[in-house]
Amino acid sequence: MTxxxxxxxxxxxxxxxxxxxxxxxxxxxxxxxxxGLMGPNGSGKTTLFNIISGFIAPSNGTVAYRGKAIxxxxxxxxxxxxxVRTFQTPKVFERLTVVENVMTGAxxxxxxxxMAGLLNTPASRREIDATREAALATCRKFDLGAVAGKxxxxxxxxxxxxxxxxxxxxxxxxxxxxxxxxxGLTTTEIEAMTDKLRLIASEGITILxxxxxxxxxxxxxxxxxxxxxxxxxxxxxxxxxxxxxxREAYLGV
Length: 253
Ligand code: ADP
What we know:
Keywords: ATP-binding, Nucleotide-binding, Transport. The chain is α/β, with parallel strands linked by helices. 38% of the residues lie in helices and 25% in strands.
């Protein structure tokens, strides 16, 4: 089955002063499934993620999402359109509980907003209750039900990563951009993370994942490899592992 790409990068370049961090990067992310982006340190992965999510602008080229160029859109506008990202270092609200953290992911779906919440109207109370119920269901889905009432600062690394994922999920993503979601995790925690990513993908949410982790990358159907700001290989994990340019980039052999 072929479908229109959800994300399309065309000739994307980025210069920092005289240094070209990205050079004419082109690839597409199909709708549905899991796509991977790999590359040695300094190859341009974070720069590309920052361009896709709108934190920085490219020097050249275009990024199209759902068939439209999005270069003019802010980070917030992209996130409202379903382009939601996580960060290499999990960003959780330490002093909020787990369920409250997940609730913050849904802020864009709430109608009455902060003012009505402060005024504590019946409508805003109903909305907050419904948002909390939905967030609790998400906590259970991400194996965080038992710690939903716990302060986020008390969570170990594996649960922090799952919490970040749960919060991003609560933002109704169409394209979820995950930056090193397994970094700092044990093998068992990586397996739990992999299960949740498969679950998210099974619901029709498209995932683009940046990772060094070969075990985690095994779940990507298609992988693009960056080296010195260029795509040097695209294909399945088996194809990428056999590719001479990739072996040279990673192992120098
Ligand atoms: P990766 O995420 O693959 O490790 P990055 O995208 O962080 O790579 O960096 C790619 C290259 O661009 C590196 O050489 C890095 O030093 C350089 N770089 C990234 N951001 C900046 C910046 N704001 N100013 C100057 N150089 C930068």
